[in-house]
Design brief:
Order of helices and strands: EHEHEHHHEHEHHEHEEHEHEHEHEHEHHH
CATH superfamily of the largest domain: Glycogen Phosphorylase B
CATH class of the largest domain: Alpha Beta
Mean pLDDT: 95
EC number: 2.4.-.-
Organism: Sulfitobacter porphyrae
Radius of gyration: 22 Å
Keywords: Glycosyltransferase, Transferase
Enzyme class: transferase
GO molecular function: glycosyltransferase activity
Number of domains: 2
Number of strands: 13
Strand content: 15-25%
Low-confidence stretches: none
């Protein structure tokens, strides 16, 4: 198939799962065109992300005159379809915090996307997240573009389903993807019952070959690593408070960056934890792999999630996981078997889980690590997930 991926900001350091999905589809012989609204405004440090950026067509970089030209061409090509798409853009805009003007921009972007997809012979467009990308894909479809689908990750989409018009997008889409059964249940809340059969679970995945020879658990004092954007929903502030309660000899490495870094660093200083907590900022996948190898477990203290990629990556790397009972995480992490689950926001429970980790015999920890690896690789092989996604996309339209 010839597939277009329609994305908002791509690539981003925290969204390597999209890159893996695209490359898995390409390994299976499909041709994928990458279309994004804008570039990531930070620095890309992973060579794979840099390579993806070089292959991506950025709509807003085209300039307003190009988008206006394509809009006029779309109007001339199919006046009725263009007016119907404009009415849909206005409908979506009235419900959205983004507003009407931005949805008129989405319409112009959709005109360019539709023309680009026709020229490339694209038979299916796929978007990620429930925000502007599927809106553009929907409008492009109305302007003569290909059929489309989109993946909803959460948690942001579940915070504002009406404002994002998730129901309307699901009704217009050929199908919708959730990354966990929990995510599918949330989409079912906002979809017509008649559309439930077109909501499918397709897991994000890991590349098993990257985890073919996991490092054994290290000897010595226990170390944990947390990976993710430094933002409210990821719960790193709770993690720092919990570290102050941990009685055992335990070191935490925080990988990632974001808007809360200054607050996190200030709390580390206030609690006198500089000797026990290390912040690395964003690092490439090679460094992430090395940090996992040096750790005894991964900790994910999130308040809200979809199904975290870093959890399945840690498990594939044969590391137990301490995580919270949120969203799809309990579908993957099994307490007492592959790690620990604690109530979100519970500092004492999180600290106790880390103390338990720190005092668990090495042999038992290794058993949990092996069980987690088996479970992650069985459920989250990206090639298997890509095959399922391609099957849902179906044959090219005549």
């Amino acid at each position: 198939m010839k597939i277009a991926y329609i994305l908002n900001t791509y690539p981003q350091p925290s969204q390597s799962f999209i890159r893996r999905e695209i490359r898995a589809l390409e390994r299976q012989g499909h041709k994928v065109t990458r279309i994004a609204m804008r570039r990531f405004d930070g620095q890309l440090v992973d060579p794979q992300d840099i390579a993806e950026a070089e292959q991506t067509d950025y709509l807003l970089a085209k300039g307003p005159m190009t988008l206006l030209r394509d809009s006029l061409r779309a109007l001339g090509r199919n006046p009725g379809g263009f007016l119907a798409a404009m009415r849909m853009a206005l409908k979506l805009g009235r419900r959205s915090e983004a507003g009407l003007l931005r949805h008129m921009i989405y319409l112009a972007e959709a005109a360019h996307v539709a023309a680009q997809c026709r020229a490339a012979g694209v038979t299916h467009a796929h978007a990620h997240f429930g925000t502007n990308a599927p809106a553009v894909a929907l409008l492009a479809r109305m302007l003569g573009g290909s059929k489309f689908s989109f993946t909803v990750h959460g948690p942001e989409e579940f915070d504002a389903p009406r404002a994002l018009s998730l129901g309307a997008k699901m009704k217009a889409a050929d199908f919708t993807v959730a990354i966990s059964q929990f995510g599918r249940s949330q989409l079912m809340r906002w979809a017509d019952h008649a559309d439930w059969d077109r909501i499918h679970v397709v897991h994000c995945g890991v590349e098993p070959e990257r985890f073919s020879d996991p490092a054994p658990l290290p000897e010595g004092p226990r170390r944990v690593v947390a990976i993710g954007r430094l933002v409210e929903q990821k719960g790193q502030m709770i993690l720092i408070y919990a570290m102050a309660q941990v009685k055992a000899d335990l070191h935490l490495t925080l990988i990632g960056d974001g808007e809360m870094r200054d607050q996190i660093e200030a709390l580390i200083d206030r609690l006198d934890l500089r000797g026990r907590v290390t912040l690395t900022g964003w690092v490439d996948e090679t460094r992430v792999k090395a940090e996992l190898a040096a750790a005894h477990a991964m900790v994910m203290p999130s308040f809200a999630e979809g199904l975290p990629m870093v959890v399945m990556e840690a498990m594939a790397a044969a590391r137990p996981v301490i995580a919270t009972y949120v969203a799809g995480t309990p579908e993957l992490v099994r307490p007492g078997e592959t790690g620990w689950l604690v109530p979100a926001g519970d500092v004492s429970a999180l600290a106790q889980a880390m103390d338990d980790l720190a005092t668990l015999p090495q042999a038992r920890l290794a058993e949990m690590a092996a069980a987690g690896r088996t479970r992650a690789l069985a459920r989250h092989d990206i090639d298997t997930s890509a095959q399922k996604l391609a099957a849902l996309m179906g044959p090219a339209e005549a």
